Amino acid sequence: MALSLEEQTRIDLAATFRIIAHLGMHEAVANHFSAAVSADGKQFLLNPKWKHFSRIRASDLLLLNADDPACAENPNVDATAWSIHGQIHRLLPHTRAVLHLHPVYTTAVACLAKPHVPPIDQNTARYFNRVAVDELYGGMADTEAEGARLAGLLDGKRRLLMGNHGVMVTATSIGEAFDDIWTLERACQILVTAWSTGQPLRVLSDDVAEKTARGWEGIADFSRQHFEEMKQLMIDADPSVLD
Predict the structure, then answer these.
(1) Residue 15 burial class via C-beta count within 10 angstroms: exposed 0-12, middle 13-18, buried 19 and up
(2) CATH number of the domain bearing residue 208
(3) Between 220-237 and 174-196, two packed helices, what is the crossing angle to 10 degrees?
(4) What is the pLDDT at residue 140?
(5) What is the residue-averaged pLDDT of the chain?
(6) In terms of residue numbers, what domain contains 80?
(7) How far is CA 84 from the centre of its chain?
(8) With helix as H, strand as E and coil as C, how does 134-185 read?
(9) Per-residue burial over 220-233, b = 16 or more CB atoms within 10 Å of its CB, e = otherwise
(10) Domain count within the chain
């Protein structure tokens, strides 16, 4: 029997939490992922407040409505998660998945005076002219106004390098969002390592960087398959993710 959209999305999103924990990219019991389950994008799944990524099951995910302010009163809903994810799903209906993390290397790059990802290899070139930057960090993002501001910064772009904070990636599928945030962290790891040598970077030309970025955009099936492989590894290791 085929799974419903919500059932499949629950499994995929729960697996994403497990994968991120497995890769050591999580932040204690903080950070949040969400995924839309309605055509208008306003009904979405979100992880419950302060539950470790490595323990999240499909049934643990909360079903919320971006148009219903009463959701913010649920004690299992983190205020910052509602402020950010609720507003993105309300204002950007084409967005199906939203991943917000504080991974070490991407966050380190976000803490530069001028956060940027210069194209020095195939991974960094994936993001050439394709990352929005927020340089107005003002503390915990716990208001709807702040969430709306962040959603506005994503206009026309899928990734947001959040200055002094972390990163947010959006996509039309969970698989593409996962592969994107994984590759962005790998790109920043390469970049920080290269900077640490103290030697000048050999930056790709704009033409080559653009060609490479477009090449990445043409293989979304690669991203989805990367996710499927990682998801199966999580299911094999601990089938409770499906519960």
Answers:
(1) buried
(2) 3.40.225.10
(3) 100
(4) 85
(5) 97
(6) 5-242
(7) 12
(8) ECCCCCCCCCHHHHHHHHHHCCCCCEEEECCCEEEEEECCHHHHHHHHHHHH
(9) beebbebbeebbee
(10) 1
Specify whether the CB–CB gap between 12 and 174 falls below 8 A. yes
Give per-residue pLDDT as tens, 72-109: 999 999 999 999 999 999 999 999 999 999 999 999 99
Rounded Cα distance between 219 and 150, Å, is: 28
d(C-alpha 240, C-alpha 188), whole Å:
32
pLDDT at 141: 80
Could you report the per-residue pLDDT of 163-192, keeping only the tens digit for each? 999 999 999 999 999 999 999 999 999 999
**Closest listed residue to residue 175, CA positions, set 115, 235, 126, 219:** 219
For residue 45, CA distances in Å to 5, 30, 175 come to 12, 16, 15
